[in-house]
Design a protein that fits this description.
23 strands, 485 residues, alpha+beta, seven-stranded mixed β-sheet
Length: 485
């Protein structure tokens, strides 16, 4: 029977989506479910990994109902990165709430390893930080001696969401991860592309807890056993969500840059086949690995991007829907108002988990429109900070940026991004870049898609702001940023 479809899972911070796509990358069926967010303490963020699995299983059944598994070329999984899951090796059931990438409870673990910063950064491309999975898992195990004992006895699995979903899909027969997710745990030697026992000892994480295999993104990861409508289908790609969008954009050559405007922002620059360590607060990760080659990236992660707009809507109640953000365009500037959304500290290139959020520069004439514009501007400024750091690390200015995600549909935000960087910003015509990227990866080695299946462009924004005004805006942002720390 000929292959007609590929299945893609996009498991994000806010929910899970599953889609059935055809050879033209057209979505035949799609379904999604949100999952609950838990914030038990300041700086804490958690998910219920069992809820995520149950949602994923239900969605996969829904989109493949009535489809012969023989018609499906493969299943691809993209996932929220760094979010950390600990589960029972025998049952597959989580033994702790999943610790979300935004969570900074493991600050003391990162602080303890500060004397080893140079060595750890060389091996992993990442500075010691509570942001990454290793510190999160180390904190959970340290706080629960009984769980640590079980981990040392090989009874507990530790992984990111991709490896957890793979484990559940295969009925525990496959415990693996891909190189992109592994490179974000701070336990992978990115030069050798394998787990480091040395790093596991640094974090006091039993080595036997880690996935058995770390594989390229286009590998055969295992066979679905636990979902009837997909039984026998191979999982043929796994990627972190940001990496999947990088690939979906077609950033396959050194120097190409993309940013994804989601809950947070992930800005990635393809730097080729050799890792380059940053001197300006960025991370070095594996962008993707396919067709026998590893592609590295410089990356900056913004903790709070579109989530700032959710906060403005739900907590400040300045708007009732995102459509009301249009009010930001009724004023010509923020009039000196800056919003720095350091709700869980600052991400790249600052990495300061102690920074506090502020709205700064208000006067008696400040209106709701100014604050809304400042909220949008905060996203563009944070991305510009990372892009500036990339230029410093590589010696090459960023002149062209590919954009995707929910924030990329906001015209004012995209113009701000173009003005503040300054560079041309090309917005993807594909709203689901993560899905597209992991779907292409899942099917391409079987010749399922054309080689040029990457996303077309919907709009291009060019800088309009005068240089003097741009420098003034950027200096005001830097001043506001300094007041958070």
């Amino acid at each position: 029977m000929s292959k007609k479809y590929v299945v893609a899972v996009d498991q994000s911070t806010s929910g899970t989506k599953a889609s059935l796509l055809d050879r033209n990358l057209e979505t035949v069926r799609t379904a999604r479910k949100p999952h609950e967010q838990f914030y038990p303490k300041p700086g804490y963020a958690e998910h219920d990994a069992e809820e995520i699995w149950q949602n994923t299983a239900a969605l996969l059944k829904e989109v493949t109902e009535g489809i012969d598994p023989e018609e499906i070329v493969g299943l691809g999984i993209a996932n929220q990165r760094e979010t950390t899951v600990l589960w029972d090796r025998a049952t597959g059931k989580p033994v702790h709430k999943a610790i979300v990438w935004q969570d900074v409870r493991a600050g003391e673990i990162a602080a303890r390893l500060e004397p080893e910063k140079e060595r750890i950064t060389y091996l992993t491309g990442l500075v010691p930080s509570p942001y990454y999975s290793a510190a999160k898992a180390a904190h959970v195990l340290k706080e629960d001696p009984q769980l640590m004992e079980r981990a040392r006895n090989g009874e507990i699995c530790f992984g990111t969401v991709d490896s957890y979903l793979l484990y559940r899909l295969t009925g525990g027969k496959s415990f693996a991860t891909d190189l992109t997710n592994a490179s974000r745990t701070q336990l992978l030697d990115i030069h050798a592309c394998r787990w480091s026992e040395e790093l596991a000892k640094d974090f006091d994480i039993p080595f036997c807890c880690l996935p058995d295999k770390v594989l390229p993104c286009d590998s055969d990861f295992g066979v679905v056993e636990t979902i009837d409508t997909l039984k026998g289908v191979h999982i043929t790609s796994m990627m972190g969500d940001s990496h999947a969008s990088l690939y979906g954009h077609g950033c396959i050559k050194a120097g190409m840059v993309k940013t994804s405007y989601g809950t947070g922002s992930s800005i990635m620059m393809n730097i080729g086949h050799e890792p380059v360590l940053s001197n300006n607060g960025l991370s070095t990760s594996i962008g993707y690995a396919a067709e026998g080659q590893v592609h590295y990236v410089l990356e900056g992660n913004i903790t709070c991007s579109a989530d700032t707009l959710v906060w403005v809507r739900d907590s400040l109640e300045l708007i009732h829907s995102m459509d009301e953000l249009d009010a930001a365009g009724t004023v010509e500037s923020t009039d000196g108002v800056y919003l720095v959304p350091a709700f869980s500290g600052l991400g790249a290139p600052w990495f300061d988990e102690k920074a506090k959020a502020i709205i700064y520069g208000m006067n008696r004439g400040t209106t709701k429109a100014h604050v809304l514009r400042a909220a949008l501007a905060s996203i563009a400024h944070q991305n510009a900070d990372v892009l500036d750091a990339m230029s410093k690390d590589t010696g090459v200015p960023v002149t062209h940026l590919k954009a995707d995600g929910g924030g990329s549909v906001n015209k004012l935000l995209m113009q701000m991004q173009s003005d503040y960087t300054p560079c041309a910003v090309a917005v993807s015509a594909e709203k689901e870049l993560t899905q597209r990227g992991v779907a292409i990866m899942a099917g391409q080695r079987f010749g399922f898609f054309e080689s040029e299946a990457f996303s077309p462009v919907a709009a291009v924004y060019e800088p309009k702001m005068a240089e003097e005004e741009r420098l003034k805006e950027r200096a005001g942002w830097a001043d506001a940023l300094a007041r958070t720390r």
